[in-house]
Automatic annotation (TrEMBL):
PANTHER family: 3-OXOACYL-[ACYL-CARRIER-PROTEIN] REDUCTASE, SHORT-CHAIN DEHYDROGENASES/REDUCTASES FAMILY MEMBER. This is SDR family oxidoreductase. GO terms for molecular function: oxidoreductase activity, acting on the CH-OH group of donors, NAD or NADP as acceptor. One of its GO terms (biological process) is bile acid metabolic process. It holds the Pfam family adh_short_C2. The keyword Lyase does not apply. Keywords: Oxidoreductase. CDD domains: SDR_c (cd05233). It comes from the Bacteria. It comes from Candidatus Alectryocaccomicrobium excrementavium. Belongs to the short-chain dehydrogenases/reductases (SDR) family. PROSITE patterns: ADH_SHORT. InterPro entries: NAD(P)-bd_dom_sf (IPR036291), Sc_DH/Rdtase_CS (IPR020904), SDR_fam (IPR002347).
Length: 239
């Protein structure tokens, strides 16, 4: 199988895109360290991945806690060996509102989860990748970070930061064998709301369609792709 002998650390796996990524990697033979603050959803994803034959370590984790992230990364390494693939999927959207009606506690929550929750795992796991001369990092951003979406100014800002981080980090580490890319989903149907008006395809995407791209970027088939942000948005038309 394509990922036999490889270990992936994935955040935000309790449902949706993160779960789809975990299950696709499990089917392809990867060992998985699965992280999420939602213990119930985490356990369900772990169960499904184990049924597919994957070796699993569950990491109940708040990605805004740097010490906890470092401890989880070390536990994953101790149990599964070196981490070859990092998928930073944990994120939060909360609610849409005009910026003047938003609250600073909402900004801080999004910054902590969406930005720091990407930086902390990357900072913990990247040194090992550089030491071995091999790694795949995939950050989950959003079309909000590309276009900026009205009534989502704070969320758009955090996802734009992830895209900028991806571009910059790739320039630092690609020559040392570590690729860094971002995937920016558009409207993805994880709640039964198809949102057909958002794309020229006339439908929302599925978590599995996002996972297809993430898993490709995590593979050796994508060995010459780094520093990119790729949109999965059905040809987006509504911002």
């Amino acid at each position: 199988m394509e990922f036999s002998g490889k270990t992936a650390f994935i955040t935000g796996v309790a449902h949706g895109i993160g779960r789809a990524i975990a299950l696709q990697l499990a089917r392809a033979g990867a060992s998985l360290a699965l992280a999420d603050i939602n213990a119930r959803g985490l356990a369900e994803t772990a169960r499904l991945a184990q049924e597919l034959g994957a070796q699993i370590v569950e990491c109940p984790l708040d990605v805004t806690d740097e010490a906890a992230v470092r401890a989880a990364a070390q536990s994953a390494h101790d149990a599964l060996g070196p981490i070859d693939i990092l998928v930073n999927n944990a994120g939060v959207y909360d609610r849409a509102c005009n910026f003047v009606d938003s609250r600073s506690e909402e900004w801080k929550r999004k910054i902590s989860i969406n930005i720091l929750g990407t930086l902390y795992p990357t900072h913990a796991i990247l040194p090992g990748m550089l030491e071995r001369g091999y790694g795949r990092i995939v950050n989950i951003a959003s079309v909000a970070g590309v276009y900026g979406i009205a009534s989502m100014a704070d969320y758009s800002m955090t996802k734009g930061a992830i895209i900028g981080f991806t571009h910059a980090l790739a320039k630092e580490v690609t020559r040392r064998g570590v690729t860094v890319n971002a995937v920016s989903p558009g409207s993805i149907d994880v709640t039964g709301n198809p949102l057909p008006e958002h794309s020229f395809m006339g439908r929302a995407g599925t978590p599995e369609e996002c996972a297809n791209l993430v898993v490709f970027l995590a593979s050796d088939r994508a060995s010459y792709i780094s520093g990119q942000n790729i949109q999965v948005d059905g040809c987006r038309k509504r911002m």
